[in-house]
Amino acid sequence: MKKNTVMINVLIIEDNISYQRTLYGLINRTEGMKCTNAFTSCEDALNSVSEIEAPEIILMDIGLPGMSGIKGIDKFKTIFPSTHILILTVYDDNDNVFEALCNGASGYLLKDSPPEKIIDSIKEVLAGGAPMNMKIAHKVLEMFSRFKTKKTDYGLTDREKEILQLLISGLTKQQIADKLFLSFHTVNTHIKNIYHKLHVNTRSGAVSKVYKENLL
Amino acid sequence: MKKNTVMINVLIIEDNISYQRTLYGLINRTEGMKCTNAFTSCEDALNSVSEIEAPEIILMDIGLPGMSGIKGIDKFKTIFPSTHILILTVYDDNDNVFEALCNGASGYLLKDSPPEKIIDSIKEVLAGGAPMNMKIAHKVLEMFSRFKTKKTDYGLTDREKEILQLLISGLTKQQIADKLFLSFHTVNTHIKNIYHKLHVNTRSGAVSKVYKENLL
DNA sequence: CGTCGAATACCACGTTCGTGCGATTGTGGC
DNA sequence: GCCACAATCGCACGAACGTGGTATTCGACG
């Protein structure tokens, strides 16, 4: 009935031995999943990489001795590009969450999650989802809203925005003039006005401001 | 048994009348929740704002006639700062998801969600969570990983990075020279080398590259 | 009707930049 | 001991920029 090819192969990296065993047992007790490799550090796992087959899922702790799980995400993503990495940790501070997700983690769970939640999350990852602890999901949205600085209005006219756009893309005044069928002098005037409105006095100042404040 | 004060007040903004009624019925059939106000556009809702009490939750569509739900998030967040806005839409493209979450949505569901999922999500929001459709959560993580572009290494030396930093902050070559107790010519040379390594030939090109690729 | 902002256009001047050369010194590796 | 490389310094020149002006046109708004 059960074929090896449909078994979900899970790799565990967790330095707390008793919790590692708990996970190991949980996986192997679950229909359709197996865990043949469990390590206590990224280094150990990386050393054995040549001898094991690519897992579908890596359950990864963050607070590991030696290389942190965050760094580990990077490494394993390089070696096993199609493997999904599921973070399972006690850390729920913004920095760890942010770094982990940026590095390509497929999900983020906290260690207080009940066993069924962990199993469900593995299935969810493979179904194309991104399981996250409720608190973590909330943090993620918070980070988003912080990203979007409400665009300060400097009162730029449409024409000025258009020229600013070209300015940023690196064209010279003359090139902008050609592109918009304007005189060099007109462009010059517009740029002067843009500088005044943005309170800058160089084109790189303008570029900086646009990127920093997410204008345009 | 049921007290008004513990009732969760839900406001609905949904232009599809039949779906709106479905939601309305669903909410009012649910223990501990009530919906007394349902609108078909943000404009309608905003006009009635003075006559209604602040809801705990707004169920908001995105594809609305007139003002889009995205814009609506902003408006309602201003009027009812503590109200949670739950997006309920058919749109799952990156732009809409991104904009909605940046504007402060507390969750993002797709209209194919079963009724129980909607009710659960409302509860989850109030419990401090951020309910998201599985696909949406996945997109959100994708966006994160795109944010953290793994810094391409252009082989800049420490000194060059230092000068690039000052370049970006808007100093002229002479000012940089003064700040670092260097000759103008030295700074000039460093900048030349930076341009070569970054494959740009203007200071604004360098600034652009640094921001776009998240260098430094 | 007047006036205000936006868009257009022009000029001149000094400053800064980008780039072509070349050069010396010190440090670290093989 | 030699080579590579980073860091330092130098010069000259044309191109592009930033800034101070002034001026015309045209639509909008009161």
Describe the structure.
2 copies of one chain form a homodimer. In chain A, 50% of the residues lie in helices and 12% in strands. The first copy, chain A, has 10 helices and 5 strands, in the order E-H-E-H-E-H-E-H-E-H-H-H-H-H-H. Chain A has helices at residues 17-29, 42-47, 69-79, 94-102, 115-126, 134-147, 158-168, 173-180, 184-198, 203-212; strands spanning 8-13, 33-39, 57-60, 84-89, 107-110. A 5-stranded parallel beta sheet of chain A has the order 2-1-3-4-5, with helices on both faces. In chain A, helix 1 (17-29) links the parallel strand 1 (8-13) and strand 2. In chain A, helix 7 (158-168) crosses helix 9 (184-198) and helix 8 (173-180) crosses helix 9. The longest helix of chain A has 15 residues, at 184-198. The N and C termini of chain A lie far apart (59 Å). The model of chain A has no long low-confidence stretch (mean pLDDT 91). The interface between A and B is large, with 39 and 39 residues. Chain B binds a DNA duplex (30 and 30 nucleotides) through residues 157-160, 172-174, 182-186, 188-193, 195, 201-203.
